[in-house]
Amino acid sequence: MRNLLLVTLLFLLLVSTSLGLTAVAENGKTVILNANGTWKYDTTSEWRIVRSYTGSSSKNTDAFVITADTWRIRANTEALLQIYLYRPGEEVFCEAPLMMGEAGEDESYLYMKGTFYCNFIAVGKYEVIIEEKAK
Asked: Please, what CATH class does the domain formed by 47-133 belong to?
């Protein structure tokens, strides 16, 4: 029984390593599991996750910094989702990158650097991912 368990665990480790398991580090970069059990940064990824939000109510996000020339906001919602982009300290939004009036997925590309936060107006569950182009 014990040998069977060890063989099964070894098999699962080999399969998971050969499948190239990945995860997202705290800095938003993708990491890949090496065959020896260590992790390395994925340098082939075109996009780096800056922030990811889920929810079902209207809210403001925390501030985030965009350093790349190109970035995008991807969203998936069950109902209504409007996203307004603000610069901290300014009262008027600088961009309204997504206005989704029904369930679905969409994305919007932006071409400005700086510090921003989002205001979500939502009815229903949503997921929003903010990514910038990897350098």
From this structure: mainly beta
Domain ranges of the chain: 2-41, 47-133
Terminal-residue alpha carbon distance, the chain: 51
Looking at residues 62-82, what average pLDDT do you find?
97
Q: Tens of pLDDT along 76-85?
A: 999 999 999 9
Specify which residues 123 forms β-bridges with. 80
Beta strands per DSSP E along 1-135: 22-24, 30-33, 39-41, 47-55, 59-60, 64-66, 71-77, 80-86, 95-100, 104-110, 114-123, 126-133
Which residue, 12, 45, 15, is CA-closest to 28?
A: 45
Cα–Cα distance for residue pair 110/22, rounded to 1 Å: 27
Residue 47 near residue 130, CB atoms below 8 Å: no
Q: In whole angstroms, what is the distance from residue 12 CA to residue 124 CA?
A: 38
pLDDT at 89: 95
Q: Residues 101, 80: contact at Cβ < 8 Å?
A: yes
21-48 tens-digit pLDDT: 666 666 556 667 777 777 766 666 799 9
